[in-house]
Amino acid sequence: MTKPESAEYDYDVVISGASLAGSAAAILLARAGVRVALLERRSDPEAHKALCTHSLTANAYPVLDELGLIPALERAGAVRNEARWYTRWGWIEPRAAPEGPELPYAYNIRRSTLDPLIRSHAAQTPGVDLLLGHQVTGLVREAGRTVGVRASTPQGEREIPARLVVGADGKDSAVAKFAEVPARLHENARFGYLAHFRNLPLHGGIGHTWFLEPDMAYAFPNDDGVTVMAVLPDKKRLPAFREDLEGSFLEFVRALPEAPPIDSAERITKITGTVNYPLHSRKPTAPGVALIGDAALTGDPLWGVGCGWALQSAQWLAEAVASAATGRGDLDRSLALYARRHRRRLRGHQYLAADYARARPFNPLERLMFSAAARDESLARHMHRFASRLIGPLRFLNPVAVAKASAVNIKHRGAAAPVAAPVAAPAAPPATSADGAVGR
Ligand SMILES: Cc1cc2nc3c(=O)[nH]c(=O)nc-3n(C[C@H](O)[C@H](O)[C@H](O)COP(=O)(O)OP(=O)(O)OC[C@H]3O[C@@H](n4cnc5c(N)ncnc54)[C@H](O)[C@@H]3O)c2cc1C
Predict the structure, then answer these.
(1) Which of 321, 328, 245 is nearest to 289 (CA)?
(2) Which end of the chain, N or C, is less packed with Cβ atoms under 10 Å?
(3) CATH 3.50.50.60 domain span(s) along the chain
(4) What residue's CA is closest to ligand 1, atom 37?
């Protein structure tokens, strides 16, 4: 093992992984005076995550703003992520209230644009050493506590000691594995494939999500006129789907309500995907260790929220530990604060996501809220705030919102019911025959 120069191992924090969570944490910690080594196993500064549909939910906006990335994102062509959601009751189309503030938003921006942008921002931040081609291969432990990492580097193996080691190394986190932090897995009963297209216009130029119970699909406009199209069917369909991947993908898209014109679009990437993507949750701290982003919690891709949480968890960690990481405070207590905040903010979301990942149809409460949101603008806005992860499940399902949704549906049924028996009444559309009124 090569002995490092003394200046090289003099870091307060070592971060494993220079993607969204790791780069954001490095910037925020370094700005608070922490000396950070940001390790990335890949050596290409332009490296990016391929398996992603690039939609950053509105909860990401304040972090992107704090990181100072908004002007660069807008210059890079990031698209504000308005969206509409198809349900069997019709489209949920959240819009700002007349005279009200605009809806909270963040951006759709391809990871091939976003990842190099945030990583170079980290590299330019005084106090951050971005070490590319450095793969964490083990932890340095003393008396049951992590006090640094071992890494394979272009110059050979080296040890990098630090007060705190941060695992920002994704769902299969090496840091979590070496620190022996167990993962709680939840099966995901859907598989997913995605591809990028040019010349694939979307209704209103905005994102689309299709809740097909249990299958799902979505399409998001991105920077540079590229649209990403993703399908997430029930795994029961996988054997037939795989027999002709391209044919099945196209057929699935063609069959969507208000399907985008896929046949006249130009596919510019391979159809890639994953057939086994369980959700993970890990305790986000261990002695001398913190986990952020997917390393701490990997959600279901169908909700498109992992990037926002990667950025937010980086911010929560930096706020909790910046001072202690420089030796001015109790690091264990700071880590406990971070763990508590992480749990409080994300546990409920993950609980609901793990349940829905069973590829079941909507449950009665979901039927109530989704059907009412398709019929009522203020409930559509309420749903937008939940889907943007600006409110948690408890606020989403608060008694006032549930009562309002019930009232909307009762009124809708009243309006749909015939006043007197018509001579030749048209058949009621399926949308109204299966609404989500309470008690169904
Ligand atoms: C199909 C699919 C679609 C998705 N779509 C969306 C979406 O639309 N919106 C959304 O918000 N989320 C989406 N997600 C989730 C999102 O991609 C992740 O939540 C997000 O990338 C997590 O960021 P991260 O920084 O925690 O980890 P990652 O982006 O996974 O980065 C981990 C980094 O660690 C590095 N690394 C790994 N091991 C080591 C090691 N031993 N040493 C050093 N470096 C290491 C890796 O090279 C990588 O750079 C999707 C996920 C999937 C699978």
Answers:
(1) 321
(2) N
(3) 6-54+110-184+280-349
(4) 169
Exposed/middle/buried for residue 237 (C-beta within 10 Å: 0-12, 13-18, 19+): middle
Closest C-alpha to ligand 1, atom 7? 304
Dihedral angle at the C-alpha atoms of 229, 79, 314, 131, nearest 10 degrees?
80
CATH class of 192-274: alpha beta
**Paired tokens of 145:** 């506590």
> Residues with beta carbon inside 6 Å of ligand 1?
16-22, 39-42, 49, 51-56, 135-136, 168-170, 174, 192, 194, 274, 277, 293-295, 301, 304-308, 310
Architecture of the domain made up of 6-54+110-184+280-349: 3-Layer(bba) Sandwich (3.50)
Model-level pTM greater than 0.85?
yes
C-alpha of residue 61 to centroid of ligand 1, in Å: 18
**Number of Cβ within a 10 Å radius of residue 400:** 9
The closest residue, in CA terms, to atom 15 on ligand 1 is: 306
CA of 200 to the centre of ligand 1 (A): 26
Output the tens digit of pLDDT for each of the chain's 440 residues.
443 333 444 799 999 999 999 999 999 999 999 999 999 999 999 999 999 999 999 999 999 999 999 999 999 999 999 999 999 999 999 999 998 999 999 999 999 999 999 999 999 999 999 999 999 999 999 999 999 999 999 999 999 999 999 999 999 999 999 999 999 999 999 999 999 999 999 999 999 999 999 999 999 999 999 999 999 999 999 999 999 999 999 999 999 999 999 999 999 999 999 999 999 999 999 999 999 999 999 999 999 999 999 999 999 999 999 999 999 999 999 999 999 999 999 999 999 999 999 999 899 999 999 999 999 999 999 999 999 999 999 999 999 999 999 999 999 988 876 554 444 433 333 333 333 333 32
